[in-house]
Amino acid sequence: MFSSEAIRRVRADLRAARLGALAFSVVLVAACATPGAVTTPTPSSQPSTAPSASVAAGPSCGTAPVELNAYFETGFDLPFKLSEEFTKQFPNVTWKISQDQFTNLMNATPRLLSGDNPPDLIRLPTMVSLVKDGLLKNLDGYVTAFGWDKWPAAQLAQNRVGADGTRGAGSLYAMGLNYSLTGVFYNKKLAAQIGMTTPPKTVAEFEGLLSKAKSAGLLPIMVWNASASGGGLAFPLQQLMAAYGPTQPINDWIFQKKGATIDTAANLTAAQHLQQWIQAGYFPTDANAIQYTDANARFGKGEGVFIFNGDWQDAGYDKDIPGNAGFFVFPSAQAGGSVAAMSAPLTYGIATKAKRADCAAFFFNWVATNEKARQIDVSVGGSNPGGPTNLAIPPAAAGSVINETLAAGGDVAKSNGAMDFIANATGSIFAQGWTPELQKMVGGKQTADGLLKAVQAEYEKELKQ
Amino acid sequence: MRTLPLRRVRRQAVVGWLFVLPALLMYAAFVLQPVVLTVQYSLYRWDGVGPATFVGLSNYETVLSDPNLLGTIVNAFRLIVFFSFIPVTLGLVVASIMRRVAAGSLGTVARTVLFLPQVIPLVAAGIVWSWVLSLTGIFNQLLTALGLAGVTRAWLGDFDTALPAVGFIGAWVLLGLCIVLLLTGMTKIDPALYESARLDGANAIREFIAITIPSLRNEIAVCLTVTVIAALAAFDIVYVSTGGGPGLATMVPGLQIYVLAFSARQVGLASALAVALIVLVLVVILPIQRLGRGSVE
Questions:
Q1: ipTM of the assembly?
Q2: CATH code, domain carrying A168
Q3: Of A240, A246, A247, B192, which has fewest CB within 10 angstroms of its CB?
Q4: pLDDT per position as a tens digit, B224-279
Q5: What phi and psi, each to the nearest 5 degrees, are found at residue B144?
Q6: Which of residues 3-22 of A touch B (CB under 8 A)?
Q7: Structural domains of chain B in order of their starting residue, each with its CATH number
Q8: Which residues pair with A308 in a beta bridge?
Q9: How far is A437 from chain B (nearest CA, A)?
């Protein structure tokens, strides 16, 4: 009696369980397709078709109401101010702006671009893998339509990707809203204390100043090197690299040219100098725990004679130490040698499947050529607006460090010393290579030679993926 | 034993399943499917968007051979000491003291204060602690005031102290949870047990070892389970306070999976590490579960 009852119950349960199991298996079967096979977009060998008919008529935002779907980087006012001004001039264009931290944006970009509502305009991280996956719109059609090919070629070079996946030449996949420059900011008051009257002409002279600052009881260089912000020591390291060697091999490495290596004799000298600086106590002892914003806040409060940073921070320094912030391009090893600087476009791209690509491209062209937009580029962004050579760079406010960074940009251009940033070589070389290895160097756990070898090994590992 | 007509039994079963069905579907879609997908992805080399290549078990070989990836697992085990052993041990001591001396409103206040960290979002806790533990933070100020200026440092940025510092934050968060769980367990212990022990001349420590701990086996098992999982699958506190640095000193599997999947875009390798982490958690948790269950039977 008991057993037959139990069996009946079990049977009934089993039948019902089958229903449930069916629901499960539907989900599971759906899960078992090869990942990516369904959603694979156009392969990179077939660049997305360039805008055809609309381009011939001149791409624009038209007159009908348009909403641009944009992703901006949190903490930087420039794109927001530009979008406001754009709507003022073209009232039919409104904006749906989403924003996120750059590191989060970096991680989300592939999915945003491949999603159902792809952005018309998005702040881009390293772009080669995005191009390989066919996620970024090929802008070659716009280059001819707007005459961007008549601009200085170097402006667009960093945003070009070749068919073999190397950057620097090939089709255009992104545009810069402006072109930033890095170098050395200094606190004029503190610099005067250590007897610095003019910017140093050689690395040796700069090192002399560091030593003087140290013996005067000042912190020579403020830096950030915590993981969340990324290793800011990569800034002085790359400047030293360019001081002791040519920029071409560095750019080749960043652009993933075949056989490129970061482990060169010149770079070893550079890394050794950086290590000496660390050992001499030229950086804060808690560098590995300092975030980007903290480093700038502390510099703004007078801690540190120098800080290696880019002109995007101009407005911040002007506010913190008004009239007291100076800037120079990092000197070369020999007096009179050519100078170099990390100089990168503030890169924005258009999704392959973007609905308002023409309007977004028109916005790019407007930013580089419209007088008001160029003014915003300079006074809010602090950087060179680029664009055609016949347009003058708008002036910044008197006494602003922006004037010094803009002038320095001219020097770097003259010596053809523009480099991309070594942190941009691959998607995670910064997080997995430079940052941890530089932190180890601060902690006395990595040598100059070991640093370069470890980063090169990580680079090759990532390229193999 | 009451017998029910067969039809009614069937109907009851179907109705039962119908009640379960919505939850079951959610569970299948949002828990089981991701797990199955993760196992599947772990067999491919895939950047998350483009075409995927089947690579068999090679991602698992990488997980087991790459010293950096293995290092994250070692770090996770070191975190167990801070996330698990310290809160549970300290929790037992604090709870039994509270039960003995802090009854009434004082006890309530103490319970609330100690439980508070559990209510604060982990991200906020991570940010606040990174201020407290910074070179110029309150902790170092306190040390300096006590004449210990020599040991001050950026606790989260120093290779030797970063992992213990992260562990300390975790212990602070989880201590309250353990205390509340253990206190609740203690209220169920028959006071007569203590009374007879006292009659036999047992002191407080003897009572604690002979009565409190054995009676709390279940609660201790739950505390251990929750905290060990928190240690092995740690992410938020580490991500906010150190980001895995300095070097890879505080890199844990959860954070490494995130970096691999989203910044290195090696979804296959990230999935393999995730599967390894699931297996690891199960291997560590199952014996603890048996410990808890053993006391019931």
A1: 0.85
A2: 3.40.190.10
A3: B192
A4: 999 999 999 999 999 999 999 899 999 999 999 998 998 888 999 999 999 999 99
A5: -60, -40
A6: 5, 8-9, 12-13, 15-17, 19-20
A7: 55-296 (1.10.3720.10)
A8: A184
A9: 6
